[in-house]
């Protein structure tokens, strides 16, 4: 199999076809949405933060390419149960490591859309350039 | 007789594709050891060596600014630059070369019309500008400016499910308030070829001018602005074998006179004083700043290349490739194509979707096979919304594409289906 098919490894296709934590979330305390104008990818995140500043539950909604949607699904598995402090500190390397695939600059935007949405949800003025 | 005999031969391509391919240096390269299959000419075409050499020849032999240099190099550059204008005028059957202004792109050309004829010109509050839902963003957004600054009312002709314009609705939307009708000759998503001659005729009946976006048409079919009776027409060099950064604005002479320039500066003036200036003659008043001289000369050579092939033959070739592609697509399960089914009504642009695979993933997987297609909204978001599509994949054909390129595309699509099965 050619090198670039690595982008569509089993774990990516698995999360794309069987997304984790997908849907709406009753009682969500933080919500954010953004799109990738290039692809039209869309990711909406719903977070329920409990009294001890912990992400008790998380759901995502959206549509788009396999990379953007698999990344959103993986992100929900990472942040579920995480403290707000740890979630705020989450950087792109954590997501890219989890994806575990080589990405071109263009597809990087797809991969990092969900992280961007997380930062917006956790606001107030997130720095997503890093 | 001879022509009839040739037409009778089955599966005989109308263009000599291998000979054409030999003129395009880029087609000799490989992508990850795979043959390059370039199916994105609707975004930008590849360039034949004749065009590449003409631009480098300009820089190597007679680079000088046009119109003012009083020495041999300037004479030569001006002659070639103005010669390119004449070639372009002949290519679209304009009455005179002075009806052709060089811009940087179709986008700039339409902006000149929207600004110079609309915003700074005739359009008053309440005047109506009638567009269509299938326009490229570059034929939407400049008119938004006219709405925002002059209070013009924008209306749109919708697209039917088969990808054709709803012409009966067009009749209803045309009123005595309609001042501008703006329409693409060929859709960059659906491939639909619109009946612009009829559209212009009806526009003229209510006293409106007809603006034609020919970015997707000029490279692929014969255009006769006099027969169409188009008032303005815009297209780009880079989609028709020419360099990037060179575009064409055609306008009827009397309308160009009434159109204000978009760019103020050198070249576009007759005289300048402190606080005021008089414009140069048409078309020079639209060419403020040193123009893209190499680009214009390259475009002239691209026009030569296409003219030598014959635009009727170019069109016939693309109909043949498109027909073949549509038949192959029809046999694929889980794949949908958009736009008219009849190749007489469409150009060689095929938008498609594959069940279970996002267009960007389609493009990524085809890329592995060396196949270049486009994915996304194709700068036509209102049209995508009309068809309730977030994105499509799009293959587009040109003179250097043979049926084997279609076969490669179809094989690639099957590969996509395997990955996402």
Please provide a written account of the structure.
The complex is a heterodimer of chains A (130) and B (421). Chain A is an alpha+beta fold and 130 residues long. Chain A has 5 helices and 3 strands; from the N terminus they run αβββαααα. Chain A has a 3-stranded antiparallel β-sheet with strand order 1-2-3, with helices on one face. In chain A, helix 1 packs across helix 2 (66-79). The radius of gyration of chain A is 14 Å and the shape is globular. Residues 126-130 of chain A have low confidence and may be disordered. Chain B is built from 15 helices and 17 strands. Chain B is globular, with a radius of gyration of 22 Å. With 421 residues, chain B is an alpha/beta fold. The longest helix of chain B is centred in the first third of the chain and has 20 residues, at 72-91. The model of chain B is unreliable at 1-11 (pLDDT under 50). In chain B, 51% of the residues are buried. A 7-stranded mixed β-sheet of chain B has the order 4-10-9-8-7-5-6, with helices on both faces. Chain B has a 4-stranded antiparallel β-sheet with strand order 13-14-17-16, covered by helices on one side.
Structure summarized in a few sentences:
The complex is a heterodimer of chains A (130) and B (421). With 130 residues, chain A is of the alpha+beta class.
Low-pLDDT windows of residues of chain A: 126-130
In total, how many beta strands of chain A?
Answer: 3
Sheet with most strands of chain B = 7 strands, mixed
The value of Rg of chain A in angstroms is 14 Å
Structural class given helices, strands, pairing of chain B?
alpha/beta
Mean pLDDT of chain B: 95
Please report the distance between the alpha carbons of the first and last residues of chain B. Answer: 52 Å
Percent helix range of chain A: 40-55%
Which parts of chain B are unreliable, with pLDDT below 50 for 5 consecutive residues or more? 1-11
Distance between the termini of chain A: 33 Å
Task: Write the H/E string of chain A, N to C.
Answer: HEEEHHHH
* Order of strands across the main sheet of chain B: 4-10-9-8-7-5-6
Helix segment tally of chain B: 15
């Amino acid at each position: 199999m050619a090198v670039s098919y690595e982008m569509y490894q089993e774990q990516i296709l698995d999360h794309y076809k069987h997304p984790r934590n997908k849907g709406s979330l009753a009682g969500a305390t933080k919500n954010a949405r953004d799109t990738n104008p290039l692809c039209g990818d869309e990711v909406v995140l719903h977070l329920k933060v409990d009294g001890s500043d912990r992400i008790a539950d998380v759901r995502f909604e959206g549509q788009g390419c396999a990379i953007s949607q698999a990344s959103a699904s993986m992100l929900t598995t990472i942040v579920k149960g995480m403290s707000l402090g740890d979630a705020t500190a989450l950087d792109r390397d954590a997501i890219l490591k989890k994806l575990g695939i080589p990405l071109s600059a263009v597809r990087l935007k797809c991969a990092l859309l969900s992280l961007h949405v997380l930062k917006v949800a956790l606001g107030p003025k997130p720095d997503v350039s890093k | 007789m001879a022509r009839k005999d040739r037409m009778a031969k089955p599966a005989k391509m109308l263009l000599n594709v291998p000979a054409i391919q030999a003129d395009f240096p880029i087609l000799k390269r490989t992508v990850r050891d795979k043959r390059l299959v370039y199916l994105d000419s609707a975004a930008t075409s590849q360039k034949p060596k004749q065009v590449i050499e003409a631009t480098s020849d300009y820089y190597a032999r007679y680079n000088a600014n046009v119109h003012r240099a009083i020495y041999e190099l300037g004479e030569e550059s001006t002659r070639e630059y103005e010669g390119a204008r004449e070639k372009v005028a002949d290519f679209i059957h304009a009455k005179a070369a002075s009806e052709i202004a060089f811009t940087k792109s179709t986008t700039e050309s339409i902006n000149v019309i929207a600004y110079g004829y609309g915003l700074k010109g005739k359009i008053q509050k309440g005047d109506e500008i009638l567009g269509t839902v299938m326009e490229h963003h570059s034929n939407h957004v400049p008119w938004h400016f006219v709405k925002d600054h002059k209070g013009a009312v924008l209306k749109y002709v919708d697209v039917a499910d088969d990808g054709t314009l709803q012409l009966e609705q067009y009749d209803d939307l045309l009123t005595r308030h309609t001042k501008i009708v703006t329409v693409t000759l060929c859709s960059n998503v659906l491939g639909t070829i619109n009946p612009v001659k009829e559209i212009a005729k009806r526009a003229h009946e209510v006293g409106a001018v007809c603006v034609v976006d020919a970015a997707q048409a000029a490279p692929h079919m014969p255009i006769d602005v006099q027969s169409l009776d188009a008032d303005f027409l815009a297209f780009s060099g880079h989609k028709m074998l020419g360099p990037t950064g060179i575009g064409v604005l055609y306008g009827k002479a009397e309308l160009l006179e009434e159109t204000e320039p978009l760019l103020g500066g050198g070249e576009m003036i007759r005289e300048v004083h402190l606080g005021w200036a008089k414009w140069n003659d048409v078309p020079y008043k639209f060419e403020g700043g040193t123009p893209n001289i190499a680009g214009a000369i390259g475009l002239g050579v691209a026009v030569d290349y296409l003219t030598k092939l014959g635009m009727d033959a170019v069109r016939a070739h693309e109909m043949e490739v498109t027909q073949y592609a549509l038949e192959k697509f029809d046999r694929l399960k889980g794949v949908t194509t958009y736009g008219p089914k009849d190749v007489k009504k469409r150009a060689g642009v095929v938008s498609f979707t594959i069940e279970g695979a996002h267009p960007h993933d389609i493009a990524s997987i085809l890329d592995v096979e060396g196949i270049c297609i486009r994915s996304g909204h194709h700068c036509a978001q209102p049209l995508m919304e009309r068809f309730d599509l977030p994105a499509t994949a799009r293959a587009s054909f040109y003179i250097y594409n043979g049926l084997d390129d279609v076969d490669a595309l179809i094989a690639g699509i099957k590969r996509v289906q395997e990955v996402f099965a």
